[in-house]
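Appendix B, Record 12. Input sequence as logged:
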Amino acid sequence: MKRFLVIALVLLSTAFAFAQTQNAAVKHNTYLRQGPSVDDKKVLLLKTGDELELIDPVPTDNYYHVRTLDGEEGFAYVKNVTVKPAPEKLRTDLAAPSGTPAENISDAWEKPTPKQVTFHGQGGECPWNGDDSDPDTFVRKNRPDTAEADGVNYHDVKWTAIAQLKYPVAKPLRKNWTAEQIAEIEPFEGIPVRTIGYLVAFKPQSGGSGEGTNCHFNASSDTDTHMALVDGVGEAEKTSVVVEFTPRFLKAHPNWKKSALSPSLNSDNPVRISGWLMLDPDHRNHLNRFRSTLWEIHPITRIEVWKDNAWVDLDKLK
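Logged structural output:
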């Protein structure tokens, strides 16, 4: 019995430590070292902006014990690291008017057929199927309709309802999926959802060769913007659900920009995101680095921020 109690206490303390895990970011280039000293061997160079997991919040000889997103452990000099607040769950009564967002996503909820339109951008015209390399994915990414326009309601769901929704291990292009793989996601894809969380990344997909969904246009007004939504304050981008707005919505929402969202980016200010639930098969290589799931809210149809104890539409924020 005594041995059982000891094991239980160890497991409990481990679980508590995990729940209290904090994250940090590199603010100046610095070396990750094997020990807490400038004399210890260098493991790798940490660059400004790199995300770190804080293994021990108490420094040892002015070095934090940390872990990188790639799993490398070591010590980083405290003056070159910014520690983020401990994760804090958002009050559930903020999530929905009823205060009871759904724990799970129902396959019985409405799934309106995506509208198909051509986008007129700086780069030219881009049809609903983009460059046609994966039309069944792109028709969902490029839909221009909202739940209101389709006569249905957004379903308030917990962040975990999206993050924990299952999907198959499949090829990057949906057109190469089997019927069984399609059938696994079909009951949920295209449901209008609304959820809350914290933004930890804002990444316009402009520049470079562009994305197939946007006909490889690369102007900022012609491309998608990826945002990372996490469940708790200070959690790392690798744990996030990706939420994206598209150029087909951007013209009608000029306030959807980083400057307007900056008070809610990497802060303890929550956001509420409405849009269409979809699965993006093309980013499996991003799992556990920049996202925790291939399920996304894409496209976003509304962004709200928490201000003065109420949700405020970002479009109306001054």
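The radius of gyration is 21 Å.
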